[in-house]
Amino acid sequence: MKEDIDRILTTTPLLKAKDIAREIGVTRKEVNSFLHSRQDRYKKDAEFRWRLIEGAELVLTLPSGWLTGDEFEAILQAEGQVLISPIQDIKIVFSPKCKTMIDCTARLLALANQLIDQGKCVTMDFENAGRTKAYLNRAGFFDHLDEGVAVLPDRPANSAADKYRGKSDTLVEFGSVDPQASNEDLIEQMTNKFVQQSTADYQLAAFTVFSELIGNVMEHSQSPLRGFAGLQKYGGKKSHIQTVVSDSGVGIAKTLRPALKMHYPNLYEQFGRRSLEADIGLVTATMSEGGVSRFGGARGLGFKSSREQAVKFNARFSVRQERFCLRFEYRSGELVDLHRQTKLANLLGTHICFDFFLD
Question: Are the folds of 2-52 and 166-359 the same?
């Protein structure tokens, strides 16, 4: 509801709740309840007409404790369409002892850089989360965070990732995916760390996943914003290694759709017309079957071989697109669950996360 009300009051300020309700198709009671609970953002005049408060700030608060990518998505979704909101000032507040898992960290990093690219003002507040800031510095987060993002109380003066790179047993610091380079060092670092924390049985799987997905970012993202990749091992009852590869490009469906009519008529018949459901169907087919390329032929989009390797080890992987996310879970080489999330907040690009569960 928030994004709809913001959009309406930006284009037509000073509207009564009943007029807003009629525009967005809900009841006046729902609109009134929403507006009255957010009077730091909306103000009414003597005639009960509402407007956005000039200079209003959108605040994302990240709670204490472990924060997964799914939990970050829920926080983002609750605030509406942050990326395309008319609100220009975005503040991200880290609570004490907030611990972002690497899938969450990757999406947060991509969002912040995309907001800056959209011309918005972004602030990250670590006033009460010094340990969080220290971890993110160690992981290379600030090395890839746009300089336009304001950091409170201050941005780290030096990169802990550069100083200690390669010295952690459980972490591969975020590395930039350069479309003009081979990225061999990054692929090697991630593969070696993965094998070190698992067994040599994972050598081929790890190398295939990292080389193909990083190569996919290089070839298909079509964005001036660089992609990045990282890895982190987590303990607990069931140890697992989580790896992420992210870009801020146009997404899988938009990349592939121009090639469907000529090279993949069956897919064109099913998914040729752009819609959310068609995008979901096309991405599902690409990720589960592979062998689909914007160039045609058997070259594939860089998922087929990595998927085939990953499923041998009961991996779970997700692919986050602009408006939806798909999660594939395999056991004994078989797909046992395909979970889809829709109505997500806009986030450009392709963000892939693999979880390898260790015996």
Answer: no
**How far is Cα 41 from Cα 6, in angstroms, rounded to an integer?**
10
Q: What are phi and psi of 320, to 5 degrees?
A: -100, 125
Which residues are CB-neighbours of 103 under 8 A, at least 6 positions away? 68, 69, 242, 244, 318, 351, 353
Cα separation, 72 vs 64, in Å, equals: 12
- Cβ-based neighbours of 192, under 8 Å, separated by 6 or more: none
How many CB atoms neighbour CB 24 within 10 A? 14
Q: What is the pTM of this model?
A: 0.84
CATH number of this structure's domain 57-164? 3.30.750
CB 325 within 8 A of CB 346: no
Report d(CA 252, CA 285) in Å as an integer.
11
CATH top-level class of 166-359: alpha beta
Domain boundaries, the chain: 2-52, 57-164, 166-359
Tokens of 66: 């472990």
Is residue 175 within 8 Å of residue 214, measured between CB atoms? Answer: no
Fold topology of 2-52: Arc Repressor Mutant, subunit A (1.10.10)
Render pLDDT for 116-147 as a digit per residue (tens, 0 to 9): 999 999 999 999 999 999 999 999 999 999 99
- CA dist., res. 129 & res. 121, Å (int): 21
- Phi, psi angles (nearest 5°) of residue 204: -65, -40
Question: Per residue in 58-93, pLDDT tens?
Answer: 889 999 999 999 999 999 988 878 998 878 899 999
**Under 8 Å between Cβ of 52 and 10:** yes
